[in-house]
């Protein structure tokens, strides 16, 4: 518009003073400007694009190939075209980036009439998460640089990068007791495979409990006594509230907590024990629907419009995979952890209060904590007093901070374990845990 207004002003001055040569020059400039606008719009109107991603579900350290196919159906050559495939800002500004581009995602090309052009690059997925690839932004204009126009093509694709699986050492695969011999606080369950002794028959004992050898030897009915079932399986409570993670430690500590949760879930699943998880995180896909996608200003409005809104704020709803046995349990947990983000919706004490009724009593409760406050220690202590066996894992590197946190938990009759670094995850469950009585 500035060029058109400037040309109109100069044309008016030339007409007023009778400057014939300038009048013709302004007519020519206005014709070039208007012609450029029509030509650029013609080019973009006949240009379409699609995106192809080699894999949408990947693991950490995997590489994917992204290809953009441009199809130009116009009859007039396009002298230049700038193509940029957009990626989330938070995924590329860290060092190392969560999504590392191998090659170029910014292309400059010339398109001939009725031609097709394939542009591709690779992405190395360094960190778990849920990421949007695209849309692609096109920019073209006339050869004089008087007019440029943008267009978005290629619908966005979403990739899920699942966290790496780290093996745990120290699990007894034969006995299938994930945290060793843990004494139950109440004898609610018995293990028929573990006979503790024999006693006289009592009215109401089922026939399958009668010990026939002792009955035959003594001439009186005797029943078998079973040992109390040791804690079978794990319920993980993962705290991902932003207040628990100082900025100086991010994203290291939050990623470490998620990797630890996945490692424990995998080890328990391999032993065919029940496993589940509850967390105060938010699903990245739901967050995108609620807030819009994290891109620069050129595309955010379009992303908001295409994403729409959800009726309920997902930040106030805990994420959970119910504790049970099943071949699909671990994959559900891993997929949920891949899309989990820190969330301000619920603090840990509120999460425990809301989800306590859904935690089975025959499974060890493993809270993974990064910040232990008196309120958190009291909430976990209430679980202990309610009959749960609780083994906290404190995600702190500093020994002094860990000692303070472990002291508050010990006062509530819980023995904590320290998660210092990525290298210590494999030994996190080596020692046997015994609740204090």
Automatic annotation (TrEMBL):
It comes from the Bacteria. Residues 198-281 form the DUF58 domain. This is DUF58 domain-containing protein. The lineage of its organism: Bacteria, Pseudomonadati, Planctomycetota, Planctomycetia, Pirellulales.
């Amino acid at each position: 518009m500035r060029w058109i207004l400037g040309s109109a002003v100069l044309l008016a001055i030339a007409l007023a003073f009778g400057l014939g040569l300038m009048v013709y020059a302004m007519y020519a400039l206005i014709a070039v400007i208007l012609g450029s606008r029509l030509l650029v719009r013609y080019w973009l109107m006949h240009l379409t694009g699609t995106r192809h991603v080699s894999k949408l579900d990947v693991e950490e350290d995997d590489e994917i190939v992204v290809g953009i196919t441009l199809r130009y159906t116009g009859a007039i050559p396009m002298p230049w075209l700038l193509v940029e495939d957009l990626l989330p800002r938070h995924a590329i500004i860290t060092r190392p980036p969560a999504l590392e581009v191998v090659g170029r995602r910014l292309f400059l090309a010339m398109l001939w009439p009725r031609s097709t052009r394939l542009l591709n690059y690779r992405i190395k997925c360094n960190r778990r998460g849920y990421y949007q690839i695209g849309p692609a932004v096109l920019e073209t204009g006339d050869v004089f640089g008087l007019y440029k126009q943008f267009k978005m093509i290629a619908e966005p694709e979403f990739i899920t990068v699942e966290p790496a699986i780290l093996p745990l050492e120290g699990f007894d695969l034969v006995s299938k007791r994930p945290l060793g011999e843990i004494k139950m606080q109440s004898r609610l369950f018995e293990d028929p495979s573990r006979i503790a002794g024999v006693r006289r028959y009592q009215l109401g004992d089922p026939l399958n409990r009668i010990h026939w050898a002792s009955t035959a030897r003594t001439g009186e009915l005797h029943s078998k006594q079973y040992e109390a079932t040791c804690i079978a399986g794990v319920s993980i409570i993962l705290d991902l509230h932003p207040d628990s993670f100082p900025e100086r430690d991010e994203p290291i500590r939050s990623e470490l907590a998620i990797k630890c949760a996945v490692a424990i879930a995998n080890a328990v699943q391999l032993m065919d024990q029940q496993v589940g998880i509850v967390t105060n995180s938010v699903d990245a896909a739901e967050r995108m629907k609620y807030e819009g996608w994290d891109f620069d200003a050129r595309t955010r409005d379009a992303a908001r419009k295409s994403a729409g809104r959800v009726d309920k704020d997902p930040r106030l709803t805990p994420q959970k995979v119910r504790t049970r046995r099943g071949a699909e349990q671990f994959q559900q947990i891993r997929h949920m952890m891949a899309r989990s983000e820190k969330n301000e919706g619920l603090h840990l004490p509120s999460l425990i209060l809301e989800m306590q009724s859904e935690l089975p009593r025959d499974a060890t409760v493993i809270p993974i904590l990064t910040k232990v406050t008196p309120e958190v220690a009291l909430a976990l202590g209430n679980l202990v007093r309610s009959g749960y066996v609780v083994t906290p894992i404190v995600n702190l590197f500093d020994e002094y901070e860990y000692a303070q946190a472990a002291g508050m938990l010990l006062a509530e009759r819980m023995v904590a374990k320290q998660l210092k670094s990525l290298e210590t995850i494999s030994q996190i469950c080596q020692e046997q845990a015994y609740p204090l009585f």
